[in-house]
C-alpha cells in the first residue's frame, strides 16, 4: 500500500503547519527623517522601508505630466545573508525593485501628484526567504505612514511547494529545498492581485492551492498592517 502524506498533517522543519505563517511584527514610523517608514520582522527576516515624497524627482525627462512616478530600490545589506552579499545592485535586486514598484502602483492615487516622484527604499537587514513579500508589505505601511493617498494597502505573502506539499511562507531553506515558490501581493479589500510570480514547477491545481494559501496569509498580515498604522506601536 502506498501511503500518501496528508498535507494537513505534514509538519515542517521548523514545526509549522502547512498553513502557518512565521511570527510577524510590524511597526510604522520608525525613521524620523523619512516622510514615512516602517520596520517588519517575518521570522528571521528583518526589513526597513522608507518613503520620501511626493517630491520633485529632479530629473526632468522622467517626470510625467499626468501622474507621479514611483522609484523603488530594494537592497540587501552585505551582512543580511549567510554568504556576504556584494554591496550594490545585482540582477535580482533590480528585478525585485521593479516588481515591488509594480505591485504597489495600483494602490497609490498617482494622478494626484503630477510631475512628482514617490521614492521607496527597502533595506533588508537580515534575510531568510520571502524578503520581496515582506518588503512590499512594509513599503505599503510606509506609504500610509507618509500620508500618501491610497486606494488600499498592499500586502504580500508567498506560498510554495516543499517535498510535494503546498505550504505557506517558505523559509530560505524551504525555498532552496522545495520545488516552487509563489509570491503573491494583493489589495485586501477587493483581493485584486497586484503581484504573482512563480519560480519552480507546480501543477495547475497546486498553483491554485498556493495562490489561495498565499491570499489567506496576506489577509492575516493585513490585520497587523492596519493596526501598526493606527497605533504606531509594535503589533504582532
Ligand atoms: O527573498 P525572496 O524569497 O523574495 O527572494 P529569493 O530570490 O527567492 O531568495 C530567497 C532567499 O535566499 C532570500 O530571502 C535570502 O534569504 C537568500 N539569498 C541569499 O542568501 N543570498 C542572496 N544573494 C540572495 C538571496
UniProtKB/TrEMBL annotation:
Record GO cellular component, one term: cytoplasmic exosome (RNase complex)
Keywords: Cytoplasm, Exonuclease, Exosome, Hydrolase, Nuclease
Gene Ontology biological process terms in this record: gene expression; nuclear-transcribed mRNA catabolic process; rRNA catabolic process
Chief subcellular location: cytoplasm
Location(s) in or outside the cell: Cytoplasm
EC number per UniProt: 3.1.13.-
GO MF term (any one): 3'-5'-RNA exonuclease activity
Class of the enzyme per the UniProt entry, highest EC level: hydrolase
SUPFAM superfamilies hit by this protein: Ribonuclease PH domain 2-like, Ribosomal protein S5 domain 2-like
Record has Hydrolase as a keyword: yes
The keyword Plastid is assigned to this record: no
Residue stretches making up the Exoribonuclease phosphorolytic domain: 20-149, 152-217
Record's function text: Catalytic component of the exosome, which is a complex involved in RNA degradation. Has 3'->5' exoribonuclease activity. Can also synthesize heteropolymeric RNA-tails. Catalytic component of the exosome, which is a complex involved in RNA degradation. Has 3'->5' exoribonuclease activity. Can also synthesize heteromeric RNA-tails.
Subunit annotation: Component of the archaeal exosome complex. Forms a hexameric ring-like arrangement composed of 3 Rrp41-Rrp42 heterodimers. The hexameric ring associates with a trimer of Rrp4 and/or Csl4 subunits.
Protein name: Exosome complex component Rrp41
Annotated organism of origin: Methanothermus fervidus (strain ATCC 43054 / DSM 2088 / JCM 10308 / V24 S)
Gene: rrp41
